[in-house]
Design brief:
Belongs to the peptidase S1C family. GO terms for molecular function: serine-type endopeptidase activity. The protein is α+β, with helices and mostly antiparallel strands. Strand 21 (375-377) and strand 22 form a beta hairpin.
Length: 484
């Protein structure tokens, strides 16, 4: 295929050699060595098992006791070491690495290219972004490298990775950016750069660099069935890392923006239910009382399509955009509500540890029995009943519970396909409150008669409050059971 003149103008030429660049950058990359004391009481070696009276029994018992294993309470604690990489960002001795490289370490040592080793102190760390900032005290200024603009990197651009794979200090590998915005389920702000530059164990925390010698990523993870490089490595983008590193230097922790919403993806069915022309944005499933979103007038059922001048093309983008927004900034939020676009302004708050680590309950509920007076919602494959003291007790529902209770779900119905379970509460249908089973049935029948192919239910389950789109049968109608 012939390359056009425009494409040729934008493409960087392949270098004849990376030698000059590597020579300039290597002094700024350090090897990280950590030491952790393992108490033999819970970390000791397991003694091999032999039949009683075996001649090997005493031999191995003496060996294990001597070397700190087994159950000898007087055995000396063992020390474990681990290796990683980092890079200097300030001549005064500030070093960036991954948090997982120095996690649980008793001692951290940074080793420079010339072999000089210095004890490193932790300035700050952030588990969510897997970043840590260290400080070493050297008698002279150290060679530092700077961050580049990772947003400018394109798939196919050349990159270098420098680090300490398998303890082999100062290793340089070259490759390209293979993909952008990878979500590997490592954390809530996943937006990794993917590269085929060889990255192995020990490379974690080292820099991924462009041809200008700027850090555009921090090597963090690999995909490998064997544990070695197969050309699929992942790096934290510099533009995600820079504000976190700045916060770690100033406050010792990362400070993130907070909007106060629980969100979920917009599927094709949800988009059709809400009248959206395309599948995009973040659907608001719940709003924290008194939070920035609530104060701005954002409601359950709104779809956030743009935040502070940045498009929310998919749900996953919103948490990162909000997290990167300066605290106390008044941000413009573009919403889709009731078939219309509207704009509100929200003052971004600060995400607290409690809000960041909130987890849903995972207790199993008892199975449902047939309830007198329950209503079967035909076409959805479920039955519901009004809230009652017995149902509140059976499903552990609080006094503030609203809506109707799902009492039965047919295994082959639309509700079962979407994960609806007995004990869930249906709070709204198409963003209108549900007051009784008859009210729910009427709203479903009305949607069916108007030609709607699906309805959007607001459901409260063990996983929290979320929207569930359900297809409806155009020929079915709801009926009330006789209590048999």
């Amino acid at each position: 295929m012939m390359m056009t003149a425009g494409m040729a103008a934008n493409a960087a030429p392949a270098p004849d050699s990376f030698a000059d660049l590597a020579e300039r950058l290597l002094p700024s990359v350090v090897n990280i060595s950590t030491t952790q004391t393992l108490k033999n009481a819970d970390k000791g070696l397991d003694m091999p098992q032999f039949p009683p009276g075996s001649p090997f029994e005493d031999f191995f018992k003496n060996f294990m006791d001597k070397h700190g294993g087994g159950n000898n309470p007087d055995a000396a604690p063992r020390r474990a070491t681990a290796l990683g990489s980092g890079f200097i960002i300030d001549p005064a001795g500030l070093v960036v690495t991954n948090n997982h490289v120095i996690a649980d370490a008793d001692e951290i040592t940074a080793i420079l290219q010339d072999g000089q080793a210095y004890k490193a102190e932790i300035v700050g760390r952030d588990t969510k972004a897997d970043l840590a900032l260290l400080k070493i005290n050297a008698p002279t200024k150290l060679p530092a490298i700077s961050f580049g603009n990772s947003d400018e990197m394109r798939v196919g651009d050349w990159v270098l990775a420098i680090g300490n794979p398998f303890g082999m200090a100062g290793s340089v590998t070259a490759g390209i950016i293979s993909a952008r915005a990878r979500d590997i389920n490592a954390g809530p702000y996943d937006d990794f750069l993917q590269t085929d530059a060889a990255i192995n164990k020990g490379n974690s925390g080292g820099p991924l660099l462009n041809l200008k010698g700027e850090v555009i990523g921090i090597n963090t993870a690999i995909f490998s069935p064997s544990g070695g490089s197969i050309g699929i490595g992942f790096a934290i983008p510099a533009n995600l890392a820079k504000p976190v590193i700045t916060d770690l230097q100033k406050y010792g922790k990362a400070r993130r923006g907070w909007l106060g919403v629980r969100i979920q993806s917009v599927t094709d069915e949800i988009a059709e239910s809400l009248g959206l022309k395309e599948q995009r944005g973040a659907l608001v499933a719940d709003v924290s009382p008194g939070g920035p979103a609530a104060k701005a007038g954002i409601k359950k059922g709104d779809v956030i399509t743009r935040f502070d001048g940045r498009d929310v093309s998919e749900m996953h983008r919103l948490p990162r955009i909000v997290a990167e927004t300066p605290i106390n900034r008044e941000a413009e939020v573009v919403l889709w509500r009731d078939g219309k676009k509207l704009t509100v302004r929200a003052v971004v708050g600060e995400l607290s540890d409690a809000e960041e680590t909130e987890q849903a309950k995972a207790a199993e509920k008892p199975s449902a029995k047939q309830d007198a007076g329950q209503t079967a919602i035909a076409g959805l494959g479920l039955s519901v009943a009004p809230l009652s003291p017995a149902l509140r007790e059976r499903y552990d529902l609080g006094n503030d519970a609203k809506g109707v209770v799902v009492t039965e779900v047919k295994p082959t119905g639309a509700a079962a396909d979407k994960g609806v379970r007995p004990g869930d509460l249906i709070i709204e249908v198409s963003q209108e409150a549900v007051k009784s089973p008859a009210d729910l049935a009427a709203k479903i029948d009305a949607a069916r008669k108007s030609g709607r192919k699906s309805v959007l239910l607001l459901v409260q389950s063990e996983a929290g409050v979320h929207f569930v789109p359900l297809k409806i049968d155009a020929t079915s109608s709801s009926k009330k059971d006789g209590g048999q």
